Sequence to fold (153 residues):
Amino acid sequence: MVDWWCLMESFRYYAGGATKPTMKKTKTTYAVIYALSLLLTFAAALPTYMASSFVAQFVPAGMVGLYWAASGAITAAALLWLPPLLRRYHNYPVMQTVLGIAVLNSFALAVASDPWTALIGMVVQSLVITLLAINLDVFLEDIADVRQVGTTR
Fold:
């Protein structure tokens, strides 16, 4: 069984908590983190594949690359805000918030009829997938042995 309390407390430690909790380093804990990472990959793969064709409906074909470059720049700028958020609110609540935004954004994309709503939704989707991947990596980093960090991921 995964020790969820220790998993949440490990986020608090990385965000500036005083003491590092002891998380059980079992095969189950690794399996849960890997399964969540795999689900995140599936959640990102199909929309990413379809995104360029979808975006091409709203912007000229020559501008699709520029759109994704702007999306990447917005994501990079948002990543600059991540460390202060983690220090202040801790990783677990930040991850819950980002996951909530991802779910709401998916619903907004499903019912979007306005091109601007769809384009902004695609940028937000790219951003939240990146943030969730970083949060899952912190989970994995916490349970990995210092000697295993390069090989665990």
Q: What stands out?
A: DSSP finds six helices and no strands in the chain. Residues 1-5 have pLDDT under 50 and may be disordered. The two ends are 21 Å apart (CA to CA).
